[in-house]
Amino acid sequence: MTKEHIIVGLDIGTTKICAIVAEVTPEHGVTIIGVGSSPSRGLRRGAIINIESTVESIKKAVEEAELMAAVQINSVYIGIAGGHIASETARGVVALKRHEVFPADVQRAVDTARAAAVVPSDRHVFHVLPREFLVDSQGGIRDPVGISGSRLEVEAHIVTGSTNSAKNLMKCVKQAGLDVVDIILQPLASSEAVLTDEEKELGVAMVDLGGGTSDLAIFSEGAIRHSAVVPVGGQHITTDVQIGLRTSLVDAEKIKIDHGMAMATMVGGTDTVEVPRVGGRPPHPVGKRVIAEIIQPRVEEMFELVLREIRRSGYEGKLAAGAVLTGGASMLPGMPDGAERVLDLPARRGTPAGVGGLRDIVSSPMCSTGVGLILHAHRMDQDGETAGAGRRNGNGARSWMGRMAGRVLNFF
Known about the structure:
Blueprint: E1 5-12, E2 16-25, E3 29-39, E4 43-44, E5 47-48, H1 51-69, E6 75-80, E7 86-95, H2 103-116, E8 123-135, E9 138-141, E10 151-162, H3 163-175, E11 179-185, H4 186-194, H5 197-202, E12 204-209, E13 214-220, E14 223-230, H6 234-245, H7 249-259, E15 272-275, E16 284-287, H8 288-313, E17 323-326, H9 335-343, E18 347-349, E19 356-357, H10 368-382, H11 400-411
Parallel strand pairs: 1-6, 3-19, 6-11, 12-17, 17-18
Antiparallel strand pairs: 1-2, 2-3, 4-5, 7-10, 8-9, 8-10, 12-13, 13-14, 15-16
């Protein structure tokens, strides 16, 4: 790249919407130059339930990011998650006419795997991620280009989701005056920001603890092996606190953030918190341990669902690098300890890395998806697969629908 290049990641979550602007240069790499956030008003468990509210939240986040970065944002990369996301494994096989693997042969094999996947008409394929290649039945190959043989086979991880959910997401972004360059699976994006190559090689479970749902991505031998969505997130913990303490949802969220603890055994002493009550009733004191005892069962349920998915994937006992927690809900004190107790794996809290500039502003686990969208887009851009998400003074990139149409034309 010989000229300035702007990439924008837009994380549309259940509790917040975050827009992150990065400038990519050969000298400094990926540099964060602007960040904007806004409370999310129109989503529930990752699904849009109010178009107008979501559009307004997107506009506010983007305007804030534009002011900080001094750029005009025209197009963005967005993440997608929610209970409608599913994955499966498919295989594709092609003959090598020139008895050597060329890049076009790799693309043919991947396209064949995509065609072999059983995808209902109401679902869309978001990603076809190669796990490994085989040339003449010789497996364990990550980059087959240049290898001699007569047959190329690929095992791929296929990620699908609801077509209507994707359309609703794109409609909100479009009504906010933006084009969608690409839609990326949120746990895949987050993994770009918080996982190391060594962890992906050894075997790791990345858990993105969001507001409405929690996303799981399992990596081993450098490739994604399993992805899933767990229908429990930070909002469920807040609701438990609200009901247990008989207070408002706003006060419950504040109490959870200021005084919450994932594990009751980590709370000592007899410290209390003044809990506001509804209906004008006077506040009443509640012990911090009582608050932790309300939170802990939900945290355990969350990781028990994650453990069930790990077992279903067949990678239980094979994750030498343990678990990495990220997302807003992972910031609750004691959350890694809760994960270690239930998953029986070493766990750490993951924060975004690999960027410069305003790194202090995006160093929170809450920004993992937004930063990951930028890093994923940059990597794909280097591979020549996508265009930039924004330019100074306009000139937006191709829309997502246009890119998909181009892929179809290229295939035929």
